[in-house]
Write a structure and sequence with these properties.
This protein has 16 helices and 20 strands. The chain is of the alpha/beta class. The chain has three domains: 2-96, Udp-n-acetylmuramoylalanyl-d-glutamate--2,6- Diaminopimelate Ligase, Chain: A, domain 1 (3-Layer(aba) Sandwich), CATH 3.40.1390; 112-317, UDP-N-acetylmuramoyl-L-alanine:D-glutamate ligase, CATH 3.40.1190.10; 328-465, Mur ligase, C-terminal domain (Protein-Tyrosine Phosphatase, Chain A), CATH 3.90.190. The strands form four sheets. Strands 7-8-6-9-10-11 form a six-stranded parallel β-sheet, with helices on both faces. Strands 15-16-20-17-18-19 form a six-stranded mixed β-sheet, with helices on both faces. Strand 4, helix 3 and strand 5 (91-94) form a beta-alpha-beta unit.
Length: 467
């Protein structure tokens, strides 16, 4: 990633407590950009090598060749021994470059005073972030910073914070995790004024071991908030006792929402969405599914509390369009719901409900890929989806991947009328499956395609579209 970064070498060194033996020239060196990719480095860049799947220190020489004016480095890195004295003069040595990146982003963020909203949750984070951004879409883009795509981790959040400047009035920061204590590190960088938790579910349970641990992790977003801040949460959130304990501990005011409230009323449920009323203003919401409707309710409540005029709010929210791979409809021979970006048990049930609503009582098809990062709980949660499928109008279900064999409704309901086909992950199987479906199912049938990111379920969508 690459962002503007207008700080001097001496300022960066001071923030990171770097003690250099090099005497810099009196005019000092000013950086223009910061990047964690040597390929994006250029004249004026500060290169931040990170230890991940590969050791970023390996690419320091490449960054310098491309023009980087300086770099951070772990002081004990073996790669420093490969650098020439002139190259070492451009180093700012730290104990941990991950922590140094976080420290720099926190330092930058604290120089400005935008209103910052943090968003986390087991599912629906990115969509909720986009919904909230739509609420404020009347504000000039130069005055608002929003997490791009799903850059919500310990690289994405710092680089998002670097986009904040003296013109920024509001920043919407998405925070994700897959290991314990990540949310704490992210919220301590961002220092959000208000936060919203979409839900607490089972995503990443392989690493966090239990749902209770996930609840503790998600509510850690309160750690970076000032006392008196607000936490927006659904009324039916799991582990409310953990939420209550954390809000009291950090002196945060909880604000609960639900789909039907005094302000938001569901006038009519339709196949393609809902007729709604917000604070007396009627409007059509063109997205089926009660999960997104729940998050919409929370977003509208937060934006209204932030002082947005209700008519502007309703006008803005109707401009929302789902991002790639998130409940995108393709209407050709079939109505395909492309929800291929990712999957966990909660989002899987939600998307099946969307397909059920969109099919309006008719039979529909589910092509479901493995749900990853469930560890020893995988069979349990895949069978949970199988049980849920048996309550919907699913005529044909294709399980794609190893653990997807447990999507078979017949494993949990002997009377299931759903036809089940299991496929392993191969291009040949995809071709055969698509050919069979195209021959078997009627035109205009709703087809939901969903699975974890690593399953690359978009391959199936593309083949159905050209079939």
């Amino acid at each position: 990633m690459l962002e503007k970064f207008q700080y001097s070498f001496s300022t960066v060194a001071k923030v990171l407590n770097h003690e250099s033996k090099i005497q810099w020239r009196s005019e000092d060196l000013f950086f223009k950009t910061i990047t964690n990719s040597s390929q994006e480095a250029k004249l004026g860049s500060l290169f931040v090598p990170l230890l991940s799947n590969r050791d970023g220190h390996e690419f320091i020489k490449d960054a310098l060749k491309r023009g980087a004016s300086g770099f951070l480095a772990n002081r004990k890195s073996e790669f420093l021994k490969l650098l020439k004295p002139a190259e070492l003069e451009k180093a700012i040595l730290v104990d941990n470059t991950w922590k140094a990146l976080a420290d720099l982003s926190r330092f930058h963020r604290m120089r400005f005073c935008p209103f910052i909203i943090g968003i986390t949750g087991s599912s629906g984070k990115t969509t909720t972030k986009e919904l909230l951004a739509n609420c404020f879409s009347h504000i000039s883009k130069t005055r608002m910073v929003v997490t791009e795509k799903n850059y919500n981790n310990e690289i994405g959040v710092p680089f998002t914070l670097f986009r904040i400047n003296q013109k920024t009035e509001i920043a919407i920061i998405e925070m994700g995790m897959n290991h314990r204590y990540e949310i704490q590190r992210l919220t301590e960088m961002a220092r959000p004024d208000w936060c919203l938790i979409t839900n607490i579910g089972s995503a990443h349970i392989e690493n966090l071991k239990s749902p209770e641990s996930i609840a503790q992790e998600k509510t850690d977003i309160l750690i970076g908030m000032p006392s008196g801040g607000r936490l927006y949460i659904p009324e039916n959130i799991l582990y409310p006792e953990i939420v209550e304990s954390k809000t009291k501990q950090y002196q945060i005011n909880p604000v609960f929402w639900k789909i039907q409230s005094a302000s938001l009323k569901v006038v009519k449920k339709l196949p393609n969405g809902f007729d709604l009323e917000w604070d007396g203003i009627p409007f059509h919401w063109a997205s089926p599914g009660e999960k997104i409707l729940s998050n919409l309710s929370g977003v509208l409540r937060l934006a209204s509390d932030a002082g947005l005029d209700k008519e502007i709010l309703v006008s803005n929210i109707q401009k929302f369009k789902p991002s790639k791979g998130r409940l995108v409809l393709h209407k050709k021979k079939f109505t395909i719901i492309d929800d291929t970006y990712n999957a966990n048990p909660e989002s899987m049930e939600s998307s099946i409900s969307v397909a059920n609503q969109l099919s309006d009582g008719k039979d529909f098809v589910c092509i479901l890929g493995d749900m990853k990062e469930l560890g020893t709980h995988s069979e349990k949660y895949h069978k949970q989806i199988a049980k849920f499928v048996s309550t919907q109008n699913v005529k044909w279900l294709v399980g794609f991947g190893k653990d997807a064999a447990f999507f078979n409704p017949n494993l949990v309901d002997k009377k299931s009328k759903t036809s089940f086909l299991h496929c392993v992950d191969s291009e040949k199987n995809i071709d055969q499956m698509v050919q069979e479906l195209v021959k078997t199912i009627p035109a205009k049938t709703v087809i939901l395609v969903k699975g974890s990111r690593s399953m690359k379920m978009e391959r199936i969508v593309e083949k159905i579209l050209v079939s």
